């Protein structure tokens, strides 16, 4: 193989490698888009605390159709499925102080924000109430609660719909196993010698009477 052929061969391999890498990246982006769903809104916020062990940090909260993400450069990052968010509250400092107890603030490590002496009308707090009882609190500067509430109205509605749908699905009773399946299972146990004839007859009677114990 000549020198020029070797150069061409190396160039072809490099091109294929770049193309493969690009295709893989595109696939990952498409998969992530499917997981997230449509982007609803994004805000610059200060994460105060309340979720896991994430540290207080300035970053961006992004609401997607299926999940909510917080990201800070070189710091706290987390993703919460919208199915786990029971409600989203947008309040002023006084409202938060009245609603959230001091004990609760200390427990989630965000007591400091309640002690701020300066209070502006153009300040808001977003609270993500999770179904497991956690309260994720975010501070938004230069946004009045009423204006921010209006801005996030569609976000709040969408997230609550996802959560409600998830709860309905979770609450649906599991389909009952048919009598034929239960009798077949008992017959197999009897054939394997696990159940005696007497035990088989007893369990069979329970199945037929709707009192299955297996």
Automatic annotation (TrEMBL):
Note the InterPro entries from the entry.
SHOCT
Q: Where is this region: Disordered?
A: 1-25
Q: What segments bear the compositional bias annotation Basic and acidic residues?
A: 1-15
Q: Which residues form the SHOCT domain?
A: 181-208
Name used for this protein in its record: SHOCT domain-containing protein
């Amino acid at each position: 193989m000549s020198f020029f052929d070797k150069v061409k061969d190396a160039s072809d391999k490099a091109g294929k490698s770049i193309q493969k890498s690009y295709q893989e990246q595109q696939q990952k982006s498409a998969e992530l888009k499917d997981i997230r769903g449509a982007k609803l809104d994004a805000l610059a916020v200060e994460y105060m605390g309340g979720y896991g062990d994430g540290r207080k940090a300035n970053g961006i909260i992004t609401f997607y159709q299926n999940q909510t993400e917080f990201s800070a450069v070189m710091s706290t990052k987390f993703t919460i499925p919208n199915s786990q968010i029971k409600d989203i509250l947008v309040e002023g400092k006084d409202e938060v102080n009245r609603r959230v107890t001091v004990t609760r603030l200390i427990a989630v490590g965000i007591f400091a924000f309640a002690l701020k002496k300066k209070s502006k009308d153009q300040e808001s707090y977003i609270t993500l109430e999770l179904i497991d009882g956690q309260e994720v609190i975010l501070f938004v500067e230069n946004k009045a609660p009423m204006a921010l509430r209006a801005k996030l109205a569609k976000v709040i509605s969408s997230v609550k719909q996802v959560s409600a749908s998830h709860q309905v699905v979770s609450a649906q009773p599991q389909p009952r196993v048919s009598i034929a399946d239960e009798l077949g299972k008992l017959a197999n146990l009897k054939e394997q010698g696990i159940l005696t004839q007497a035990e088989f007859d007893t369990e069979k009677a329970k199945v037929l009477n709707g009192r299955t114990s297996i």
